[in-house]
Amino acid sequence: MRFSIAIILIFLTFSCSEENRYEEVFDIYEDILITRVRTIDSTEAQRKVDSILASRSLNEEDFRALLQDMSKNKKEFIPRLRKLRENILSKKDSIISSKN
Hints:
Elements: H1 2-15, H2 18-38, H3 42-54, H4 60-71, H5 74-90, H6 92-97
Helix pairs in contact: 2-3, 2-5
């Protein structure tokens, strides 16, 4: 499993800039958070999250490892996490009203 994480990290490192890497991971994270809020049934929500990750050639463990790796650079990670939180909060009414 560590080998696949290493390959993903290498791929992301070489295929896109650091900025794009953060954007991609936080876009995925936003999709996951919105899906969790919108989907009442936890089993269905997990299936949708797995689908989101699979569409980007990831699984939950790989994604967690990416987040943990990125969180080591607190100067970059924390402001982006705050921005994500603000984006979610600004959309909360539309997110909640579109629950399944």
